[in-house]
Amino acid sequence: MKWYIFKRLLWAGVATMVVLTITFVLMYLTPDTRIMELEFQAAQSGTDPEQARQAAETARGMDQAFHIQYIDFMQNMLSFNWGWSDSRSEPVIDALASAIPYSMMYGVPAVIISTIIGIVIGLYSAVNQYTRGDYVATFVAFFGISIPNFWFAIILLVIFGTWLGWVDLLFDTQASKIDGEWALRAIVSWENVKQLILPMFVLMTASVASMMRYTRAEALEYVESDFIKTAKAKGVSERTIVAKHIFRPASIPIATILVGDILGIVFVGSYLIEVVFGIPGLGYLSFDAIMSQDTALVFGTVFVPVFVAIIGNLAQDIAYVILDPRIKYGDR
Amino acid sequence: MSKQPSQTIGTDESTRSSNSLLSVSDLCTYFQTDEGVVKAVDGVSFDVQSGETVAIVGESGSGKTVTSESITRLFKSPPGFIPEGSIEFDGEEVNDMTVEELRTLRGGRVSHIFQNPQGALNPVYTIGWQLREAIELHQEVTKKEANEKAIELLTQVGIPEASARLGDYPHQLSGGMKQRVMIAIALACEPDLLIADEPTTALDVTIQAQILKLLKSLQEERDMAILFITHDLGVVAEVADRVVVMYAGKVMERGPVMEIFETPSHPYTRALLECLPSKGNLGGIPGSLPSPIDPPDGCRFASRCVFAQDECLEGPQPPAYEAGTADHVVSCIHYEPGGNPDIVLKSDATVSALDVDQMGVGGENR
Amino acid sequence: MSVDTDPTTQSANVRKDADSVTFEDVNWDEIDGTARGFTRTRIAWYAIMGTYLLALLNDLFNRFAEGAYQRTVAFITDTSRYQVETPGFIPGAGPAEYPLVGEIGGVTWLWSLTLLVGVFYVAIPLYQNQRMTAYYWREFKKNKAAVISLIYLAIIFAIGLTVPRFMDPPEVEPVLAYQPPVWGSVRETVPIQCVGPVSGGECHGSWAHPFGTTHQGKDILISIVYGMEISMQVGLIGMFLTILIATTVGLTAAYFGGYVDEILFRYVDIQITFPTFFLYLLVVYLVGGSLFVMIIIFGVLGWGGIARIVRSEALQRREEEYIMAAKNAGAGGLWTMRRHLLPNVSNSVITAATLVIPGLILAEAALAFLGLGDPRLPSWGETIADGRSDLDRAWWISTIPGVFLFMTILAFNFLGDALRDALDPRQGGGE
Fold it and tell me: Which PROSITE patterns does the protein's record reference (chain C) (predicted)?
């Protein structure tokens, strides 16, 4: 088992290196838009665009050989020296550090709540398969999976913001802080929670729906199984059967989707939702960076979900061997 | 519809019947499906006395498993339901029990073991956990006591080094070992009735014999009744005191094991016995089971019966007529008072007298 | 999946080409057991593909004959936001001009190929194999939601394919900005000039702009109709590319096994670890967000999951006797894969691929919403983004296109689910 975990760790390391390398190659191959702009400006103002380009490239170390640039890049990335954000005039890491708490403030509760709700509804649906409750849950889940969350967010803002006036269209970034410092008391204050309800609700629609669908499918594998009959024959109560005998074996594959899909849904969802609600989290930062062509910051903001995904995959594989006594450690 | 023994057979029998540990009468278990209502069990009656072994025999699809699962209502419901009939356990009507009472019964006084030990144990829990669960559900014990009891049970079912095995997961055990664990779980609360649904079918022949021997000795130690479900007449001969022969949801014949084997009276029982490998007919009974959704009139077996007459195709299934002794009843028109049982008993006709081209499904393995 | 024939093919062909009956009477399949017979459909397929390839090569030659690198960049980023004409740029001959259709862009090339493949590998086989079609249809129509979805998608597809051919794209007309939809109204002061009736200080909508207009005065209905084709292009071309790559990779890995398998699926492992959306985002940001680039990226980066399904299905089949028999009979690798493995995995591939479509349409909409798409293309996401800053005065700009986006994604999800029930023998709720 130790050997298995070591191998997975190694694999996560390799995946990280591959991701960084691909990014570097992409950056190397595509023309830098800012340099193209400089060239363009130079050409318009009558100076030599070639000279302007060379000057810019030297300033950015882009005249170095490929492998030197590559090693430089990798060293910087691995030491969390992710470059300078032009648009915000601060290191990328600092920009990320100030944005991430905003995302976590509503993202973490949303993940926890939607996981619980999704599992409960999914188990209910599986145990009561083909009843009215199951059909309703399935239908609602289809809506949850299909509704584009950025549009759903807009709809809710129109209804609750524009028409009913219950929430402000503008996000108050100071509501979660006291004197500019993050404070738990402020985070849980009604003023702050109120403006987070809609984003959380939108974020949860898709994740509850997928969690529910998946839990239902997995639990159905066990609902009719022989060992459930054994448990019934032992005199175990219905609720204990669901909680212990069905959920426990189903939880192993469910853990997979939790990391693989739900994290993905939440990251993508929050990205777009923040843009709509104006929450200055990771997604909004990224959007801003795209708008102002701040490449270093764009990369930084995209790396966060990518690395979370890699670590998530690692955690999931390790969770798998701990949860499932049957797994062979050599398996992929 | 077969009648209750008490109605057919004298009054002294009826007193005996009310003292039975388990008394099933006119039990029907149906399943609602898209194609219609499947009448898996359609009017079945039999008794089990304390300490004895009753075997229900029949081919796959005869309703014997559903019968056994009806006793503690283990079948899936919905779609399954019991439209009529009664199941009395120790004088109490099981059909009237609340869910709570039923749960106390399950695994407490009545326990089950199943055919497939591979799937019958939850793969993600240790066998110790699963044993302790059974113990703790019905007894007030501390965790330590439960553990000791678990070790004791495993030792009793013949698992060596039981204490070391508590932490094992089911996939670490062989099929025979798993079945022993299942038996240990079933015995956890000293049941009065053990329902064993084809407990040896999925096992190797040598292991089969060991498990049967184990069940026999455990029964003697504990004075426990066993309801044994099987399609294997060889096993029946070995373990049973009395036999219930089922076909297409109905009881065809019921009686002491010696009588069933020596004077098999129902044409179906005779056909089954003919299909034993030692009798040479390996072809099975020609024809197939009637539709469980829309069963034909008359005797369910009529279409495959060499002794069938026109009356066999009319009306309900014949009632349970006495055949020889009071304890031996047959659901066949030839045993009607005034009828001539010798048509069946003295006949040389074999199943092969029917069209043998179509190999049937009698007495086969599943 | 294959255009293979059975007896019904022949009758179908007779109906289609009544003037060549004598040729039709020969059923090549009956004569030649290897099914290499040149049926009418197959000849038509080769002829059309030949024409297609010649035209494409001509176009590529025209584009890239000179100044290949600059042209490539210009081609890829042809509609992107940083198209720069640098001095000293050597102009090539430009895209080829064709009679009737004029210039053909990258998306159109892919779109026509996808439609052709759809006709020859889905529509015609379904038509020819009517018994199978009838069977699938019986299974499929049990699911009411899926039937409604199919009808809805067929309508969207038909409108998206035809109307943009003879209707001009939405135009910027600032004077007509902020017209409300026909059933709605808005304060008189919001639009510069109200097209519909004005009463009680409210500007009411008019049939001139049934769904209203954006802040630039673009007609939303026309935008939505154009968006239909864009969404269908994204979904269907994306699915086509995904299937193409996934089956190739999956079958290759399964057939050859060993190192080939190991290398290909180690790569898939990494690709799957990536959250796809961010991968799209990054690449689109770097190379520019023309529709062509987006579709290519979707196709090239999103096939990992389906390749895994293909591989595991094919691995199960590979060991079966008929594959062994084919091998023993001297069938080559490619032949075995195409003739024996592919048909057997096609059901699970189609099902999985149908469920890829909603993801792609959503991704395109999301990227367009983030402003990474081509601002000149009226995709649904683009229109939704247009109205984002006007939520308080012009609610209809963002909400109406979203309804179509939502319904389309929902319909594809229902469809995929029903297809799984009808086609996939392994059927189970989840994957």
Answer: ABC_TM1
Lowest mean pLDDT among B197-211, B321-335, C326-340: C326-340
| Chain A touched by C430 (CB under 8 Å) | yes
**Residue B250: Cβ-neighbour burial (10 angstroms; 0-12, 13-18, 19+):** buried
Tell me, yes or no, if B147 comes closer than 8 A to chain A by beta carbon: no
| Identity of the residue in C391, C413, C429 whose CB atom sits nearest the CB atom of A162 | C391
Shortest Cα distance, chain A CAs vs residue C401, angstroms: 9
Crossing angle of the two packed helices C106-118 and C238-256, in degrees rounded to 10: 70
Burial label for C101, CB within 10 Å (0-12, 13-18, 19+), is exposed
Using CB atoms, list chains with 3+ pairs below 8 Å to chain A: B, C
What is the pLDDT, as a whole number, of residue C38?
66
CB contact under 8 A, A142 and C277: no
* Cα gap B322→B324, rounded to integer Å: 6
Asked whether the beta carbons of residue B120 and residue A252 sit closer than 8 angstroms, the reply is no
Q: State whether residue C388 sits within 8 Å of chain A by CB.
A: yes
Which residues form the domain of A240?
Answer: 93-323
**Beta-carbon separation of A148 and C406 below 8 A:** yes
Task: List phi, psi (to 5°) of B112.
Answer: -120, 145
- Tell me which residue in C86, C413, C430 faces A146 most closely, judged by beta carbons: C413
Sorted by where each begins, the domain ranges of chain B are 9-96+195-215+228-365, 110-188
Nearest to C28, CA basis, from C47, C9, C45 = C9
Same domain, A275 and A314: yes
Topology of B9-96+195-215+228-365 in CATH? Rossmann fold (3.40.50)
The pLDDT, as a whole number, for residue A236 is 87
Give yes or no: residues A242 and A315 share one domain.
yes
CATH number at residue A298: 1.10.3720.10
Residue A305's H or E segment, with its range, is helix A295-323
Q: Using CA atoms, how far apart are residues A31 and B342, in angstroms rounded to an integer?
A: 102
**For residue A188, what are its two tokens?**
């849980």
Residue B109: its chain A contacts at CB < 8 A?
none
Distance in angstroms (rounded) separating the CA atoms of residues C213 and C397? 7
Query: Which residue bears the tokens 């004569």?
Result: C31
Q: Does C429 touch chain A (CB under 8 A)?
A: yes
pLDDT for B4 beyond 60: no
- Does some domain include residue A298? yes
Determine, yes or no, domain membership for A12: no
Checking phi first, is residue B249 left (phi over 0); if not, alpha (psi -120 to 50) or beta?
Answer: left
Q: Which residues of chain C have pLDDT under 50?
A: 1-35, 78-93, 426-431
CB C78 within 8 A of CB C98: no
Residues 225-254 of B with CB under 8 A from A: none
How many C-beta atoms surround the C-beta of residue C2 within 10 A? 12
Render pLDDT for B269-318 as a digit per residue (tens, 0 to 9). 888 887 776 666 556 677 778 888 888 888 888 888 877 778 788 878 88
Give the per-residue pLDDT at C9.
Answer: 41
Q: Please state the pTM of the whole predicted model.
A: 0.77
Q: Is B74 on the interface with A (CB under 8 A)?
A: yes
Choose the closest CB to B74 out of A233, A324, A326.
Answer: A233
**Rounded to the nearest 10 degrees, what angle do helices C238-256 and C291-301 cross at?**
30
Q: Classify residue A2: in a domain, yes or no.
A: no
Q: Tell me whether residue A282 is in a domain.
A: yes
Query: Which residue among A229, A236, A325 places its CB closest to the CB of B137?
Result: A236
Per the CB < 8 A criterion, the answer to whether B250 and B43 are in contact is: yes
Q: Do A252 and B124 touch (CB under 8 A)?
A: yes
- Count of domains observed in chain A: 2
Inter-chain residue contact A230 with B122, CB threshold 8 Å: yes
Q: Give the span between the Cα atoms of A144 and A203, in whole angstroms.
A: 10
